[in-house]
Design goal:
451 residues, mainly alpha, 19 helices, globular, MATE family efflux transporter, transmembrane helix, transport
């Protein structure tokens, strides 16, 4: 274990800052979830399916931004800022292209896409109302998140939770007005939630533009710098980012497939999955914050040329990850009933929610360890392809085939199917542990400075 207090202070500050940002970001979805849940179970289920599409986009955005973060942290460790700007510009181009394709698909084929996730016509009808508005947020969401994520590589994390806090407050106010028709506003139901999110995402982008123009002085990012990049860095970015992007894309698709499996088991299963997923996301913000923090710190250390410090860092981080996972799992288990008391849902949906969250309280411990070691330490160390290969095998050759067989051939209960969709969080700890302790993942992804 590392004894220096500075290590724990840096880890705690980064983790809590990123956790707060994640908490506020997920709070937007939770606000929609709670308010639509008390408005109509069908509206809740419809928005839950749409959020899976949003989650897929988010995974792609993470993939696009992580390439810039991995490269940026190592360049920052070297004290070189100009290459960071070029990698951020490249990431914005890639992410913007992805968002544009997603926008066009959703704009023209909303019903067909939702039909892949459920066969409930009423749920699809509600979801289409939401998607036809929310798709206009995709490009703004992508640019905002790539820029804020990229700033983490140089230690700037405060802007992330400032943006997320502003979005959450605005979203709650507008939801209250537009979903229910309060304060003289029209009652728009699920459309109101979509309009509220569209307004919030617009404000997010305006805040990050203002911050970059007037407050950020390390990179001095401007529109001109983001557009006129050194194209030679595109090759470096592709080599680092494409494995991450591929991994995140197939993870997002797999999550949509999981939702599709549960979606064909009835509206109560959709609602229960939505509630359990939101609770999991809220409680595990520290888990994901610690993963991102460890990736940043590992990248800085490699960039500084201090590889001898890596082993004690890793051993310390492993213990921290397990401790955070146990506490997070316990929290999920204990808050089940208080959370469900906030929803107006059927007894069947409530019972499924209780059982789904009990399962997540166990699998969260595995998530905290294997995901943080994989997406944090190993990816932060420059090895971005391991996660892609592992998840390709896990998701498409093990998890989904077994779950689909259990649901549609054996007709097992939604509880067993849900567990089979989540147990990979436990067994993936084995290959991650083996990979981590072989120490072959430490890779420099930066160029040497020209003489």
């Amino acid at each position: 274990m590392i004894s220096e207090k500075s290590f724990y202070k840096t880890f705690a500050l980064l983790t809590l800052s990123l956790a707060l940002q994640n908490l506020l970001t997920y709070g937007v979805n939770l606000a929609d979830n709670l308010m639509l849940g008390s408005y109509s179970e069908t509206a809740l289920s419809g928005s839950a399916l749409c959020n899976q599409i949003q989650f897929f986009l988010q995974m792609l955005v993470v993939g696009a931004s992580e390439g810039a973060v991995v490269m940026g942290t190592q360049y920052f460790g070297k004290g070189r800022f100009e290459p960071i700007v070029h990698t951020i510009g490249t990431a914005v181009r890639f992410g913007g292209g992805i968002a544009a394709v997603m926008f066009l698909l959703i704009l023209f084929f909303p019903g067909q896409i939702l039909g892949l996730l459920t066969n409930d016509a009423a749920v699809i009808a509600e979801g289409v109302k939401y998607l036809q508005i929310i798709c206009f947020t995709y490009l703004m969401f992508t640019v905002t998140n790539i820029l804020t994520a990229s700033l983490r590589s140089v230690g700037i994390v405060k802007i992330g939770y400032i943006i997320s806090a502003s979005t959450l407050i605005l979203n709650i106010i507008l939801n209250s007005c537009l979903i229910y028709g309060n304060f003289g506003f029209p009652e728009l139901g699920i459309r109101g939630a979509a309009v509220a999110t569209l307004c919030s995402r617009t404000v997010e982008l305006l805040i990050v533009i203002w911050y970059l123009k007037y407050k950020e002085h390390s990179l001095n990012l401007t529109l001109k710098k983001l557009v006129f990049i050194d194209r030679s860095y595109i090759r470096d970015y592709k080599r680092t980012a494409l494995p991450v992007l591929t991994s995140q894309a197939q993870w997002g698709l797999a999550q949509m497939a999981q939702t599709g499996v549960l979606g064909h088991l009835g509206a109560p299963a959709i609602a229960a999955n939505s509630i359990a997923t939101i609770v999991f996301q809220i409680i595990t913000v520290v888990v994901y914050g610690s993963a991102s923090a460890s990736g940043i710190m590992i990248g800085w250390t490699i960039g500084e040329g201090k590889e001898k410090n890596i082993k004690p860092m890793v051993k310390t981080l492993e213990i921290l990850f397990l401790s955070i996972g146990i506490l997070s799992g316990l929290a999920i288990f204990l808050i089940r009933e208080p959370v469900l008391s906030l929803y107006q849902i059927s007894p069947q949906a409530k019972a499924l929610s209780m059982q789904f969250m009990a399962i997540l309280s166990v699998t969260t411990v595995g998530t905290a360890y294997q995901m943080s070691c994989d997406n944090g330490i190993i990816r932060g160390g420059g090895n971005t392809s391991f996660s892609m290969k592992m998840n390709l095998i896990s998701m498409w050759l093990i998890l989904l085939p077994i779950s689909i067989f259990a649901a549609f051939v054996l007709h097992l209960s939604p509880i067993i199917v849900f567990f089979l969709l989540k147990w990979d969080q436990l067994y993936k700890a084995i290959p991650v542990f083996i990979r981590l302790h072989r120490w072959k993942w430490i890779t420099k992804v930066t160029r040497e400075e020209a003489a």
